[in-house]
Design the sequence.
């Protein structure tokens, strides 16, 4: 069984975003792997480790050569191989990204396309759904739990809903996106999981050895042209602006004053 | 010239993420409330697979040394000395990675707790190295892997109330033979890192067979933390380095079998060898100080820069004042120098030419003084806030002082550098 995981680099969410003119200023920004994609890598590793059914985890990213760094960090966690499709990751819209992923999927023919539910930069949450549509594959989004069948023919996806979880079994191959809870200690199970198997919460840290081994792992570099993908821009950014800054809060002396302010100043009552 | 590669930078980011998430939330408990640092250190070691990696490297070295010994070579242990005798040149790129992997965890942890680094270094460095250098295979099997993985916490007891820089000359702790295969140990040790909590203690003393003290051989014993005849103090209160529990150890008529004597024999031909081992240990300690100093300088500088940018007095950020700028610029000079020294040490070690004792001493002397100056200046940049624990720079300043004292005082480094210049 082969798992293809997608990983996008995003500006480190802990940094302050700078807006310069009509665009976000990315100069001097530190980049990290999109957290949800990191969770997808972690989920793939857990599937591999406990099932024994996964032969290869391939991580796909799109971007300039610089993105190799984020790709290597996924390999350092334990993924087996990387694919870098060279392109401008900053200007791609969801449709273009989906087309590229579709083309790579067709080259690799994995049994499972595992993705983060969204990238935390654009928060679009569209690519997985578009890819599944284009490939005519079953899709299950926002997985908080995963359980792989013993013969790897299907995967049961648990999704958080109001008041509980719902479980859906999808045949493989299919497209699955993961949510935050997929990195809880017992969120990923396979037929090979031990009853009391628990992982440390969160995506794993790469070990020293893992980081050094990652240097030797293979990264295939492909151009968009090689994939035969047409890239027309569907989404245009017309302007970028920071949200208006909020005025400072005030302290009120009494309930009466609060009601008065809510009625006459905030006009919410 | 060596510099951090992309994978080293990646490792560094990963280490920092761990330290921020797991160590920093516990810093107040460890630095101000006396909580022992070992659980979080174990987690650190395990998360990055460092213990297993060190055990792997140790086993490979030992196997090589044993093969050489079997082939008629002179390999007596699995230690660095045996390694240096190897004909095969080390692969520089792998050795550079190894140097970086040793230094980076120290640097990242030193940013927040030089004390924890000290506790760590003594437990998985000095203590197992003493056993690796001279211990029998059985002693090595029993203690070395468990110490390298931090499953057991180690202490290395040399200093006494009356013996500091003059570690051997003034040493009063003794081991008297008792029958053919036992020894009676007596002596007081102080300033022993991990002393209050250690599972394994290397007790260094003089073999007393009736000869005058200055002619007695230096021997070392492997003790357990809890033994009849062994008493330990609670952690001593110190100026800084609170992340490292330090205590006293008292041996009174402690009777031990020869199996606890490191090497299990007293070889007269081999006179003074435990003394040489201890000296080698001092050299190793010195290169660790470079990495510690770098981490502390980087952190002090980072905090100072941020403060200088944001602290406004008389209507301007204080960073616009030349007196503050001078401090920040001097911090950068110190940072570059210490980083270059560390890079040079990693590079020359990787090429099979580790710094000699004079070079190691020069590096330690400079780095300790630089760290002290930078961290004190950071307190000054912060003014009144810097004097408050909340702003973290006061801890760096208190901790930096120890770098000028332990592992050989500044004065000892000076004399070693000078003597090597005068009478090389």
Sequence:
């Amino acid at each position: 069984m082969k798992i293809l995981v997608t990983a996008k680099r995003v500006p480190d969410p802990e940094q302050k975003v700078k807006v310069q003119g009509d665009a976000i200023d990315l100069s001097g920004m530190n980049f990290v792997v999109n957290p949800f994609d990191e969770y997808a890598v972690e989920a793939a590793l857990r599937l591999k480790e406990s099932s024994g059914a996964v032969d290869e985890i391939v991580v796909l990213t799109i971007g300039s050569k610089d993105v190799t760094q984020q790709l290597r960090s996924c390999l350092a966690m334990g993924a087996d191989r990387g694919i870098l499709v060279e392109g401008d990751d900053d200007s791609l819209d969801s449709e273009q990204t989906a087309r590229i992923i579709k083309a790579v999927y067709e080259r690799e023919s994995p049994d499972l396309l595992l993705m983060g539910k969204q990238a935390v930069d654009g928060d679009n949450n569209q690519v997985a759904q578009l890819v599944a549509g284009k490939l005519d594959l079953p899709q299950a989004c926002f997985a908080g739990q995963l359980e792989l069948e013993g013969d790897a023919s299907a995967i049961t996806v648990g999704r958080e809903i109001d008041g509980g979880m719902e479980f859906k079994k999808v045949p493989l191959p299919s497209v699955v996106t993961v949510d935050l809870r997929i990195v809880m200690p017992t969120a990923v199970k396979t037929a090979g999981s031990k009853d009391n198997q628990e992982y440390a919460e969160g995506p794993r840290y790469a070990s020293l050895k893992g980081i050094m081994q990652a240097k030797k792992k293979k990264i295939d570099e492909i151009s968009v042209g090689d994939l035969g993908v047409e890239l027309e821009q569907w989404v245009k950014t017309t302007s970028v602006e920071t949200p208006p800054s909020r005025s400072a809060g005030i302290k009120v002396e009494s309930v009466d004053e609060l009601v008065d302010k809510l009625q006459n100043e905030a006009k919410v009552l | 010239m060596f510099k951090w590669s992309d994978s080293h930078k990646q490792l560094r980011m990963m280490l920092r993420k761990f330290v921020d998430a797991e160590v920093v939330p516990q810093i107040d408990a460890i630095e101000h409330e006396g909580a022992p640092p070992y659980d979080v250190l174990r987690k650190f070691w395990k998360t990055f697979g460092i213990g297993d990696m060190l055990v792997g490297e140790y086993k490979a070295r030992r196997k090589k040394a044993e093969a050489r010994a079997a082939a008629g070579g002179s390999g007596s242990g699995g230690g660095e000395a045996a390694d240096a005798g190897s004909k095969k040149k080390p692969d520089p790129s792998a050795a550079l990675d190894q140097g970086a992997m040793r230094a980076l965890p120290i640097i990242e942890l030193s940013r927040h707790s030089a004390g924890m680094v000290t506790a760590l270094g003594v437990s998985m460095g000095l203590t197992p190295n003493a056993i690796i250098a001279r211990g029998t295979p059985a002693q090595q099997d029993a203690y070395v892997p468990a110490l390298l993985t931090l499953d057991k916490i180690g202490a290395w007891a040399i200093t006494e109330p009356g013996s500091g820089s003059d570690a051997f000359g003034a040493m009063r702790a003794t081991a008297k033979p008792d029958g053919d295969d036992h020894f009676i140990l007596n002596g007081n040790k102080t300033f022993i890192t991990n002393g209050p909590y250690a599972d394994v203690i290397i007790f260094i003393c003089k073999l007393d067979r009736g000869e005058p003290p200055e002619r007695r051989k230096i021997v070392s014993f492997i003790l357990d933390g809890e033994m009849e005849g062994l008493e330990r103090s609670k952690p001593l209160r110190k100026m800084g380095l609170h992340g490292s529990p330090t205590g006293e150890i008292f041996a009174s008529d402690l009777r031990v079998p020869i199996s606890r004597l490191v090497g299990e024999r007293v070889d007269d031909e081999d006179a003074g060898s435990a003394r040489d081992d201890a000296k080698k240990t001092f050299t190793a300690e010195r290169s660790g100080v470079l990495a510690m100093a770098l981490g502390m300088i980087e952190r002090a500088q980072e905090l100072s820069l941020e403060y200088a940018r944001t602290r406004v007095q008389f209507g301007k950020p204080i960073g616009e004042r030349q007196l503050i700028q001078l401090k920040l610029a001097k911090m950068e000079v110190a940072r570059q120098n210490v980083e270059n020294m560390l890079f040079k040490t990693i590079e020359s070690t990787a090429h099979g030419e580790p710094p000699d004792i004079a070079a190691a001493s020069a590096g330690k002397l400079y780095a300790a003084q630089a760290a002290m100056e930078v961290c004190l200046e950071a307190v000054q940049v912060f003014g009144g806030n810097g004097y408050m624990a909340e702003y973290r720079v006061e801890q760096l300043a208190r901790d930096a002082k120890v770098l000028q004292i332990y592992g050989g005082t500044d004065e000892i480094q000076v004399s070693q550098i000078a003597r090597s210049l005068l009478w090389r």
Summary: The longest strand of chain A covers residues 139-148. Chain A has one domain: 2-240.
